[in-house]
């Protein structure tokens, strides 16, 4: 059968979809509703073509954008009106169109500071009523019996509004979140396991952003409501979302140690859906000196800080035990996992057995052990600093301390240990112990692994502060941890030795006298009150043995403090306080050193060993 060719052309014409033609006509300024009263109802039945819509907006100059202001206001108003309909297709397409408009305008505003997003999109006359109606519709959808995909689309829109500008305090649209609170419908999504599985991550991220909006300048309703929240289901749901996110990071890191890396994780794919606002890496590099590509868990870390800092009731969720494989924990959303990605081979990781009971503290300690291994970049230092601040909030809370020191509540926690030249890392099953012992192990690991030329002094001050608060609780409550304290003492002495050896270099950037005073005060706590929290009298003997064995470190520290305290430099007062703090340690050394030397002479020995029958209490 013969076919006729189109005259004047050897190829087919490219046909544009109807919705694309509408976009082009709309941004040319044509009035599309003149001859069609039902235009908007028909328009929102057409599937949006987001790339084409964004391209049309990017074509416009600033002058053309301002001229299109009324038309853009109309389009946004119609999107908001459609959110009140029961027709789910129109609802979803209106949400997608509005999200695309916001994302594109935020991108234009980032390139040109003269662009006023609020004026162009919602106008000035009835902006408040429009946004009030938008948030009312969002609240109804989030609280209603509607498909999860629709709630998810609403949350994505809200995240786009909240995260459009790098500095959230400069985002004028976020003010409408404050005027029209969505706290209650958002919190309700965390109370049931099915909704938490679908929406938990987005809800917690959104709350985290909103809590940080002008929190120091004005009364933020989200700060107030989060601080007084006492709904146990909601708080447990909030904690489980954070646990799942941090656990994903921990599992992928330990899996990378076994198999050399894998995919970027579901958090990366999940956050990438928010209009490209959250930037994550596509690949996870092998763990080298603790360095790992950043992921969405950073937002969860900040969310954990806000809850731990603001809400005392949240501390009860720290002990909410569950199996890592329990269905109540929010799993990785299956729809967001890339098809090529497979989870890490956890069968090879004995210490991360899914059948082991876990809680938020366990996961957070594991996460900290990974994060604290890398202090080379500013971003990693900031993340490490936030971890220490959260730990400070935890050890200052009486209930959290009672959980960590409960002898009947023990966990096997596998901490990440940094590969170093002087030790080989063998992944073995960790001991079952109270979480306070695990926290001390974590702090010891940090102290020993960062005695470097680029010394992170601020992090060490935070670390020593956490340790001092933990020991103060043990002394105050007479809690005796059945553990070997010698690794901690050795780490603290190594820190003092490093400070003295590098005094001239470190003093250019840090006041090492304050840090040294904190460390010496920890030893003073053991010396003066050790009988209230050390497990056995033998522990006291071990403490005195370490002080006498390493007396040279304390002598050098004292001479350094004496040198600066007798001069008129800027560190005179701090050095004087340090010298005074060393009175107890020096008294012990000066009292026992002659006795030890006499005893060694009588035994014809050069040095004593810890196992020999000597102790500083006179039993020889």
Automatic annotation (TrEMBL):
Keyword match Transmembrane: yes
Domain of life: Eukaryota
UniProt-listed SMART domains: DUF1741
Compositionally biased region (Pro residues): 330-342
Main subcellular localisation: membrane
One GO cellular component term noted in the UniProt record for this chain: membrane
Chain segments carrying region Disordered: 322-347
Keywords per UniProt: Membrane, Transmembrane, Transmembrane helix
Cell compartment(s), UniProt: Membrane
Pfam family, one: ARMH3_C
Domain Armadillo-like helical: 427-618
The protein, known as: Armadillo-like helical domain-containing protein
């Amino acid at each position: 059968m013969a076919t006729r060719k189109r005259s004047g052309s050897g190829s087919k014409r490219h046909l544009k979809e109807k919705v694309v033609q509408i976009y082009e006509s709309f941004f040319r300024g044509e009035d599309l509703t003149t001859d069609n009263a039902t235009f908007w109802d028909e328009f929102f039945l057409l599937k949006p073509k987001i790339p084409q819509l964004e391209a049309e907006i990017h074509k416009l100059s600033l002058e053309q954008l301002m001229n299109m202001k009324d038309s853009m206001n109309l389009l946004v108003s119609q999107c908001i009106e459609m959110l009140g309909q029961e027709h789910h297709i129109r609802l979803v397409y209106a949400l997608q169109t509005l999200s695309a408009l916001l994302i594109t305008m935020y991108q234009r505003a980032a390139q040109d500071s003269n662009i006023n997003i609020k004026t162009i999109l919602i106008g000035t006359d009835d902006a408040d009523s429009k946004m009030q109606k938008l948030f009312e519709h969002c609240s109804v959808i989030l609280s209603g019996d509607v498909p999860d995909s629709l709630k998810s689309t609403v949350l994505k829109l809200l995240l786009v509004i909240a995260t459009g500008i790098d500095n959230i305090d400069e985002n004028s649209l976020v003010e409408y979140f404050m005027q029209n609170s969505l706290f209650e419908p958002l919190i309700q999504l965390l109370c049931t396991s099915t909704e938490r599985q679908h929406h938990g991550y987005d809800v917690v991220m959104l709350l985290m952003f909103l809590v940080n909006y002008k929190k120091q300048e004005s009364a933020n309703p989200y700060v107030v409501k989060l601080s007084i929240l006492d709904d146990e289901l909601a708080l447990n749901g909030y904690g489980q979302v954070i646990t799942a996110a941090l656990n994903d990071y921990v599992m992928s890191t330990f899996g990378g140690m076994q198999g050399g890396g894998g995919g970027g994780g579901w958090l990366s794919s999940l956050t990438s859906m928010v209009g490209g606002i959250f930037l994550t890496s596509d690949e996870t590099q092998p763990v080298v000196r603790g360095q790992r590509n950043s992921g969405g868990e950073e937002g969860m870390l900040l969310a954990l800080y806000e809850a731990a800092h603001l809400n005392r009731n949240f501390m009860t969720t720290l002990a909410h035990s569950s199996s890592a494989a329990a269905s109540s924990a929010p799993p990785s959303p299956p729809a967001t996992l890339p098809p090529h990605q497979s989870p890490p081979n956890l069968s090879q990781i004995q210490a991360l057995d899914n059948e082991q009971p876990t809680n938020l503290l366990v996961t957070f300690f594991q996460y900290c052990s990974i994060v604290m291994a890398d202090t080379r970049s500013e971003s990693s230092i900031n993340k490490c600093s936030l971890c220490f601040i959260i730990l400070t909030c935890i050890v200052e809370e009486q209930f959290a301390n009672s959980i960590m020191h409960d002898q009947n509540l023990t966990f096997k926690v596998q901490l990440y240990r940094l590969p170093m030249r002087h030790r080989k890392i063998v992944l073995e099953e960790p001991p079952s112990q109270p979480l306070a012992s695990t926290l001390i192990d974590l702090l010891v690991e940090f102290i020993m692994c960062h005695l470097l030329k680029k010394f992170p002094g601020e992090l060490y001050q935070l670390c020593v502060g956490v340790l001092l608060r933990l020991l103060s609780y043990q002394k105050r409550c007479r809690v005796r941890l059945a553990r070997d304290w010698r690794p901690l003492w050795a780490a603290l002495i190594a820190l003092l030795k490093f400070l003295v050896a590098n005094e001239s270099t470190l003093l250019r950037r840090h006041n090492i006298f304050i840090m040294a005073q904190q460390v010496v005060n920890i030893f003073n706590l053991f010396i003066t009150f050790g009988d209230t929290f050390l497990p056995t009298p033998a522990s006291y003997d071990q403490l005195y043995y370490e002080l006498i064995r390493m007396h040279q470190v304390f002598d050098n520290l004292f001479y350094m403090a004496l040198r600066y305290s007798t001069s008129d430099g800027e560190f005179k007062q701090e050095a004087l306080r340090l010298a005074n703090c060393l009175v107890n340690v020096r008294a012990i050394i000066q009292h026992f050193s002659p006795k030890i030397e006499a005893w060694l002479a009588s035994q014809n020995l050069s040095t004593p060993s810890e196992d020999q029958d000597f102790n500083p209490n006179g039993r020889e």
